[in-house]
Specification:
It is a single chain. The chain is mainly α. It has helices at about 1-35, 35-55, 60-75, 75-105, 120-140, 145-150, 150-175, 180-205, 220-245, 245-255, 255-280, 285-290, 295-330, 340-355, 360-365, 375-395, 395-425, 430-455, 465-485, 490-500. The longest helix is centred in the middle third of the chain and has 37 residues, at about 295-330. The mean pLDDT is about 85.
Length: about 500
C-alpha cells in the first residue's frame, strides 16, 4: 500500500507540474512583449523578497507534518486535532507578522531597484504580491492532513487547476490590455477560490477535524516541537538566503534586465526542481512511515534505491538542460534573452548538486533529524552571500553562481549526508561518497558523449531542433545507463517492479 500511494503521488505530481509549467511559457512570452523586461524582472524580484519573508514561518509546517506521522499511524484523532489547532494558531500569527513586515518593506523598495521605475506603483504591485502570500497562511494549515495520509496529490491537482485557470485568464488580459494590476488580482482571486475549495473538501472528508479549538498539546509535545522548530529556523533561514538572494544581488549590482535574462533560465530550472522535488516530497510520508517502523536495514536499502533513481533522473535532466535550454530560449524569447555558456555551466553544476541532495534530505525530514545540522544552513548562507557579493563585482553575473557553488561544496555537500548516515542508517559516510562519486563519474561520461552529439544540433534555432536535441540526448543517456547498470542491484529492483506492473497477477513489493 505504501508503494502504491507513493507511486500515485509521484505520477500525479509530475503530471501536474508539467501541466502547470506549459502555460507559464506562453504567459512569460506575452508578459515580456506587453509589459517589457524591466517589469518582468520586477516580478521576479518581488517573488524573491516574498521568499525572504517566509523565514517567519520558521519551519513550523515541516515540524508538525513530521509530528503527525505517528498519531496518524495509530489513528489518534485527539492528538491530530491538537496538532492542527496549534498549527492554525501559529499560522494565523505568522500571516499577520508577514503582512506587517511586508508593508514596512514596501517603504524601502527603492534600495533594491536601480532602474527608472515609478516607486509608488512598484509599492502597490508589491502589496498585491504580499496579499497573495498572506492569504495562504490562513487557509493552508489543514493541507498537512492530506500530505500525512499520503493523499497530497489531491492538493497538487487543485493547485494545478488553479494555475491553469490563472494562466488562461492572465494570458487573455495581457493580450487585451498590458495591466500588471489585473495580472496580480487574477492570481489572488483564483488562489483564494482554490484554498476555499480544498478546505471544504477536507472538512467533508475528515468531518472530525471541524472542531479542533478545544484540543491542546501536552508539555512534552510542545517541548519536542519547540526543539525541532528551533532547529528548522536555521534551515529555513539558510534555504531562503541560499536560493533567494540571486535576483536581489543581480538587481542591486547589475540591473532588472539581467534579472529577467537569468529568470528565463530559472523558470525552466525551477520547473525541473519542482517536478523532482514534488516527486520526492510525495514519498516523504512513505519514508516517515517506514522510519516509524524502526527497521534501519530496510530504510538503508530503500535509500540506495531512491538515490539510484534520483541520480538517473537528475543527471538526465541536467545534461538535457545544458544542451537545450539556451537553444529553447532563443526560439522562445530571442537570443538577446540568453546568457553565456560558462555561466550556464556553473548554474547546471549547482542544479546537479541540489537535485542529488534530494534523497538524503527526504530521509532527514522523514526521520525528523533537524537538530543535529541546525547550524549548517547558517554557514552555507553566510558563505554564499559574501562570496556572491564579492564575485559579482569581479565577474558579473557568473560570480553570483560561483558564490553559490562555493557554499554548496563547503557545507551541505557533506554535512547532510553525514547526519543522515550517522543518526538514521548507522552506516559509514564513506559508503555515501563511494556511491556518489561512482554515479558522478558515469554521469560525466554520459555528459561528454551527449555534448559532442548535441554540438551540431544546437546550431539550428527552431522548436523542432530543440525537441530533436532533447530526444537524442534522452535516448543516448538511457541506453548508456541501461547498458552500464544492467547488473546493478538497484536497477534489477526497478526492472522487476516494472515487470510486475506490466504483467498481470504479480504483486508489487513495498519499497
Amino acid at each position: 500500500m505504501r508503494t502504491k500511494k507513493a507511486a500515485i503521488n509521484i505520477l500525479i505530481s509530475v503530471f501536474a507540474f508539467v501541466a502547470g509549467f506549459l502555460p507559464m511559457i506562453a504567459i512569460r512570452k506575452v508578459f515580456l512583449n506587453s509589459l517589457g523586461p524591466e517589469m518582468l524582472g520586477l516580478n521576479s524580484l518581488y517573488n524573491n523578497i516574498i521568499g525572504y519573508l517566509s523565514i517567519v514561518e520558521m519551519g513550523i509546517g515541516t515540524a508538525i507534518i513530521f509530528s503527525l506521522y505517528k498519531p496518524f499511524a495509530e489513528n489518534d484523532r485527539d492528538k491530530i486535532r491538537a496538532y492542527l489547532y496549534f498549527y492554525k494558531k501559529m499560522y494565523s500569527i505568522i500571516g499577520l507578522i508577514i503582512l506587517i513586515i511586508g508593508i514596512l518593506l514596501s517603504l524601502i523598495l527603492n534600495l533594491f531597484i536601480t532602474d527608472n521605475i515609478d516607486i509608488g506603483e512598484a509599492r502597490l504591485f508589491f502589496l498585491l504580491v504580499l496579499l497573495n502570500t498572506v492569504i495562504g497562511y490562513y487557509f493552508s494549515y489543514k493541507f498537512c492532513v492530506l500530505i500525512v495520509s499520503q493523499k497530497g496529490y489531491k492538493v497538487t491537482v487543485v493547485t494545478t487547476i488553479a494555475k491553469l485557470v490563472t494562466a488562461i485568464l492572465q494570458y487573455v488580459v495581457l493580450n487585451i490590455t498590458p495591466n500588471f494590476y489585473l495580472y496580480l488580482i487574477i492570481q489572488i482571486a483564483v488562489n483564494l477560490l482554490g484554498y476555499i475549495f480544498l478546505n471544504l473538501y477536507i472538512n467533508k472528508k475528515f468531518g472530525w477535524l471541524r472542531n479542533i479549538e478545544s484540543y491542546r498539546l501536552d508539555i512534552n509535545e510542545k517541548l519536542n516541537l519547540k526543539k525541532n522548530i528551533k532547529a528548522l529556523i536555521y534551515h529555513k533561514f539558510g534555504g531562503v538566503v541560499l536560493f533567494g538572494t540571486d535576483n536581489l544581488i543581480i538587481s542591486a549590482f547589475i540591473n532588472l534586465a539581467t534579472v529577467t535574462r537569468y529568470s528565463n533560465y530559472s523558470l525552466i530550472i525551477n520547473a525541473v526542481q519542482g517536478i523532482t522535488g514534488t516527486a520526492m516530497s510525495a514519498i516523504t510520508a512513505s519514508i516517515g512511515n517506514l522510519l516509524v517502523e524502526k527497521d534501519k536495514a530496510a530504510a538503508y536499502a530503500v535509500h540506495k534505491r531512491l538515490f539510484f533513481i534520483n541520480f538517473w533522473v537528475s543527471s538526465l535532466v541536467v545534461i538535457i538542460l545544458y544542451n537545450t535550454t539556451t537553444q529553447f530560449i532563443s526560439v522562445w524569447l530571442g537570443h538577446d534573452q540568453t546568457i553565456d555558456n560558462f555561466t550556464l555551466s556553473i548554474i547546471m553544476i549547482n542544479l546537479y548538486i541540489q537535485l542529488m541532495r534530494g534523497t538524503v534530505e527526504k530521509f532527514n525530514e522523514g526521520g525528523g533529524k533537524y537538530y543535529h545540522d541546525r547550524f549548517a544552513p547558517l554557514f552555507e548562507s553566510f558563505i554564499n552571500l559574501i562570496a556572491s557579493i564579492i564575485l559579482v563585482k569581479i565577474l558579473g553575473l557568473t560570480g553570483v553562481f560561483i558564490g553559490t557553488l562555493i557554499s554548496n561544496l563547503a557545507v551541505v555537500f557533506w554535512v547532510k549526508p553525514k547526519i543522515t548516515y550517522k543518526y538514521i542508517f548507522h552506516v559509514r559516510l564513506t559508503e555515501y561518497f563511494s556511491m556518489y562519486f561512482k554515479y558522478l563519474f558515469i554521469g560525466l561520461f554520459s555528459f561528454v558523449i551527449c555534448y559532442f552529439i548535441s554540438y551540431y544540433l544546437k546550431s539550428n534555432i527552431s522548436l523542432t531542433a530543440v525537441f530533436m536535441n532533447s530526444f537524442v540526448n534522452a535516448v543516448v543517456i538511457n541506453v548508456l545507463y541501461i547498458a552500464l547498470f544492467w547488473r546493478n542491484d538497484e536497477f534489477k529492483y526497478f526492472k522487476n517492479q516494472i515487470k510486475k506492473i506490466i504483467l498481470p497477477g504479480n504483486k508489487i513489493r513495498q519499497f
